[in-house]
Amino acid sequence: MSEKALEDLRNVVLEFDIDKAEQAAKKAVEAGVDPLEAAKALTDAIRDIGDAFAKGELFLPDLVCAAEVLKKALPVISKEIASQGKSSKSLGKVVIGTVFGDIHSIGKGMVSTLLYAAGFEVIDLGINVKSEDFLKAVRENKPDILAMSALLTTTAMEQKNIIETLKKEGLRDKVKVIVGGSPINQEFADSIGADGYGATAPDGVKVAKRLLGI
Ligand code: B12
Question: CA 20 to 30 Å from 50, out of 58, 117, 152, 200?
């Protein structure tokens, strides 16, 4: 039953079936599928779409439709992750966003959901966030962690710009910075002076906890 629900979830992405997306996600939850596995099925499927796009086998409208499927299905799964993981005491405060010039929201949303489910207070600034808005949020909210996502090789360097701006404004030692996104790796994170890097959303939670000594 749960295998079938997972397969159906994967297929709504691969078949760009926006109309059935929410229903497939609800069925997976009802069938008792682990919501983390459900999120993985959805995100693995959209990565396959991305690979086919990179090979020229699919086109931009296909990417857009697959993303629309995730936009319908993921909130149902994220709600389930959050309700299963809710903890009463806050582990710390995180400001998160996708950097300027970049509108990819899905991975950032996953990191945000898992941090919340793990017990962090999360302030999600959304996508295409300008460096001054990251700075303003750090100044006003005094988070323990600033988490940035970048999905494009062209926007990855924006993470460095923000770290440099934090330094100039005397805020760098007041917040731990973690970075992620498909073009980012540990070497890049080290080279731009980030405190941590996570390849996946669960890694993001691990690194956030490690940096705060939890
Ligand atoms: C869906 C998608 C889109 C959607 C986005 C919709 C949305 N609301 O997000 C749309 C159609 C809008 C889109 C647009 C574009 N896209 Co696009 N897109 C994708 C695709 C297929 C999937 C991305 C995704 O959601 N993955 C699933 C999530 C869960 O994975 P993730 O984002 O990597 O996040 C995980 C980790 O990286 C990590 N993580 C992410 N952020 C963070 C942050 C922290 C702090 C931590 C710890 C961890 C972490 O945890 C997440 C969960 O495990 C990728 C292909 C791919 N392989 O990634 C291409 C891809 C990223 N896109 C690409 C391109 C080129 C574009 C466009 C330029 C296309 C165009 N010609 O217009 C535009 C750019 C628009 C812009 N200015 O941002 C390229 C980027 C190439 C590059 N290296 O620069 C890719 C790789 C496709 C490809 N293979 O060519 N895209």
Answer: 117
73 with 99, same domain: the answer is no
- Out of 85, 106, 128, a domain closes at 85
The CA angle 100-102-106, to the nearest 5 degrees, is 125
Does the CB atom of residue 97 touch ligand 1 within 6 A? Answer: no
* Same domain for 104 and 185: yes
Distance from the alpha carbon of residue 152 to the mean position of ligand 1, in angstroms: 7
Residue with CA closest to ligand 1 atom 66: 152
Give residue-wise pLDDT tens across range 37-70.
999 999 999 999 999 999 999 999 999 999 999 9
- How many domains does one find in the chain? 2
Is the pLDDT reported for residue 87 higher than 70?
no
Tell whether ligand 1 has an atom less than 6 A from the beta carbon of residue 151: yes
- Closest by Cα among 162, 145, 164, 138 to 211: 145
Host H or E run for residue 58: none
Same domain, 106 and 207: yes
Ligand 1 geometric centre to CA of 181 (Å): 8
Kindly report, residue by residue over 148-175, the tens digit of the pLDDT: 999 999 999 999 999 999 999 999 999 9
H helix runs in 86-130, sequence order: 106-118
- Chosen domain end from 85, 111, 128: 85
